[in-house]
């Protein structure tokens, strides 16, 4: 009987060992697949410590979608991107303070990027720690991720150390991200027309990225460039560091650009 008991114990130990080995092998296969995927895309590395796995998985899918969309519209990313998803507003603020000296963020700010790093506040924290954003709106979340990814690409293509400091062309920087991410079509398509109807349309490009209509106005300006000058010309503007350079590339002065943009909005833009 004792021998039988020992044999049974050995069998259980062996089965347990095999189960653990199988689990380790399965985990290794999963990790190897993830590593192969990361090496194959060569674009983004996601760090989401403390973030719900389902939320992290959805964000990963949003990043893949964003990369494919941006690649088709503006070209591929020259350099890898580190994506850090933070579980709380405190963690998000601490990261931005550490990397860029931004000590505290407004409630609407849930993403920020430079040419190498994208920081996101986990959508799981939005209900209690953010405003103006609905984590249940999948299209909204996806477009927001794409918006920030456009900033990353723009930063990688631009010779400036920080495109955020090129305030003179803020309308182009933000308009490009609004247009390429799909936010112009989904949320701001009629805003430029509303700005014209209400007398709030800018008379200077420097004023385009200001006021309640800024996303629609700036985004429509980039859509106008794409429509009037073509995609190749638009892509060439990613390296521009001044308004003079943008207008010079397009072969038009500021007054002429604004006049043609307003006419385009009245005839081509929704609203």
Sum up the structure in keywords.
disordered N terminus; four-stranded mixed β-sheet; Glutaredoxin; alpha/beta; 271 residues; 7% strand; 12 helices; 2 domains
Compile the SSE list and pairings.
Layout: H1 2-41, E1 44-47, H2 53-74, E2 81-86, H3 89-100, E3 111-113, E4 117-121, H4 126-129, H5 138-157, H6 170-180, H7 183-187, H8 191-197, H9 214-229, H10 231-236, H11 243-250, H12 254-268
Parallel strand pairs: 1-2, 2-4
Antiparallel strand pairs: 3-4
Helix pairs in contact: 2-5, 5-6, 6-9, 8-9
Notes on the structure:
It contains twelve helices and four strands. It has 271 residues and is of the alpha/beta class. It has two domains: 39-157, 3-Layer(aba) Sandwich (Glutaredoxin); 160-271, no CATH class. It has a four-stranded mixed beta sheet. Helix 2 links the parallel strand 1 (44-47) and strand 2. Helix 5 (138-157) packs across helix 6 (170-180), helix 6 crosses helix 9 and helix 8 (191-197) packs across helix 9 (214-229). The longest helix is centred in the N-terminal third of the chain and has 40 residues, at 2-41. The radius of gyration is 24 Å and the shape is globular. 33% of the residues are buried.
């Amino acid at each position: 009987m004792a021998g039988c008991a020992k044999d049974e114990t050995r069998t259980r130990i062996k089965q347990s060992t095999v189960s653990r080995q199988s689990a380790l092998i399965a985990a290794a296969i999963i990790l190897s697949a993830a590593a192969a995927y990361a090496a194959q895309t060569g674009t983004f590395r996601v760090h989401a410590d403390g973030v719900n796995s389902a939320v992290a998985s959805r964000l990963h899918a949003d990043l893949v979608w964003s990369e494919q969309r941006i690649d088709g519209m503006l070209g591929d990313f020259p350099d890898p991107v580190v994506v850090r998803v933070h579980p709380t507003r405190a963690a998000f603020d601490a990261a931005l303070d550490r990397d860029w000296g931004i000590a505290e963020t407004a409630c609407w700010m849930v993403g920020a990027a430079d040419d190498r790093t994208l920081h996101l506040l986990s959508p799981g924290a939005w209900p209690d720690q953010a405003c103006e954003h609905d984590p249940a709106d999948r299209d909204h979340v996806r477009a927001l991720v794409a918006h920030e990814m456009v900033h990353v690409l723009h930063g990688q293509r631009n010779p400036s150390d920080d495109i955020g400091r090129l305030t003179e062309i803020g309308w182009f920087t933000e308009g490009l991200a609004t247009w390429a991410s799909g936010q112009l079509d989904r949320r701001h398509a009629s805003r430029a027309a509303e700005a014209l109807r209400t007398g709030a349309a800018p008379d200077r490009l420097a004023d385009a990225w200001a006021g309640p209509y800024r996303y629609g106005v700036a985004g429509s300006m980039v859509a106008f460039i794409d429509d009037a000058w073509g995609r190749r010309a638009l892509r060439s503007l990613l390296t521009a560091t001044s308004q003079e350079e943008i207008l010079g590339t397009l072969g038009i002065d500021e007054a002429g650009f604004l006049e043609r943009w307003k006419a385009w909005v009245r005839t081509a833009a929704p609203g």
